[in-house]
Amino acid sequence: MKLQDIEGIDELMLKYKFALSELTNKITILLEEYEFNNKTDPIEHTKTRFKTLESAESKLRKKGYEVTMDNLINHVHDMVGIRIICSFLTEVYDVVNIIKSSKQFRITAEKDYIKEPKKSGYRSYHLNVLVRVHLKDKIEYVEAEIQIRTIAMDTWASLDHKLRYKLTNLPDNIEDEMYACSDEMVLLDKRMEKLHHEVLNLEDK
Description:
Layout: H1 9-38, E1 43-50, H2 53-63, H3 69-75, E2 80-86, H4 89-101, E3 106-112, E4 125-134, E5 139-150, H5 151-164, H6 172-204
Parallel strand pairs: 2-5
Antiparallel strand pairs: 1-2, 3-4, 4-5
Helix pairs in contact: 5-6
């Protein structure tokens, strides 16, 4: 059985589409309000994602779940999402706090892969949220994922994805080198953060 052949899947995907639209609008409002109130813009850019049914099906099989609509809803937590790229490390946590203090979302899970990176060296802050979707005769909550990271972390993640595109498992020497590169990205973030504060101090004077 394929997801695309399951009855009701088109309606579910429409709800995910609505959720992504709501998520994008709400995040935009929160960040623009923050920029207005604080006279600073912590965001370099944002990018939305809508996972294909083929990708969701592959994820279910990889996790050992039967390909059903219920398993899609309950075990694929990133069908839709938004990635928020910040210039500096402290701004990542500023954005996290903005979202967590907002009443726009119900947060169901969070993972700080910056303080505790994945085995691969992947670093990012993840929030899983429920987005309220207004339908014709009811309100539903649809899950979405928010990723917040720095430019350096995003660059590493993009290159890591390209390296892993055709290989499920990389050789140990390449894995070790990728983790080392991730550590170097952290040092870069810290150096740029230090320079950022020095510039801010000069502006204050």
